[in-house]
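Example 4.3 (complexes with small molecules)
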Amino acid sequence: MIIIHSEEELNSIRVSCRILSEVLAELVKFISPGISTIELDTEAEKMIRERGGEPAFKGYLGFPASLCASVNEEIVHGIPGPRVLEEGDIISLDIGVKHDGYFSDTAVTLGVGRISSGLQRLLRVTREALFEGIGKVREGNRLSDISHAVQSRAEKDGYSIVRDFVGHGIGSSLHEEPQIPNFGEPGRGPRLKPGMVLAIEPMVNVGTYNVRIKKDGWTAVTSDGQPSAHFEHTVAVTDGDPEILTSW
Ligand code: MG
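Answer. The structure with magnesium ion bound is encoded below.
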């Protein structure tokens, strides 16, 4: 069942999202050649706890860290570790906060130092795909209007959209109904209503959309080894414009 959050609940979700936005805005400053992904995770957890939140991902279904750090051909769910970022890499930082029982979720993909023009374009198009989807977050639209807008933007530039992972409702839990695929025909699924809160998160690949899970049981990589990007915002449906709760 899709939860329609009350104004009081929305205020609590807004606080959780504000903590998360602040943390991500600080965390991106650490991205440079020479830093390891476990150092990023340590910083992220510290900054979340300093603000009175808890890392929402840590322990979720057994995930061992506060941050999903996915580099280059890694799509999502990369486990932070000793890997050191190098000039020319791209890294997806996916992070969530629980505060006072309410959840927030966001992701961004960044270049490490100077990156190729091809990777710059991948990042730009993936971000634009997210915002095309957010543009459909309007009362009365159907859920798959979001999916279709995301897919169309990514495929217009010849990229592929990952099928195996989807966006989701969020608020009282990290993952609530509905699932939000990043592909599909428009005009399907439930109608959007004020009080729904959605985490929209396109994952866009240079090559095939097929994925493979690494031996760690978590890290999803492209099956052809080509790069992938991931952007995500938590967004509330209102009676007017979409409210992006994780802007920074
Ligand atoms: Mg998410």
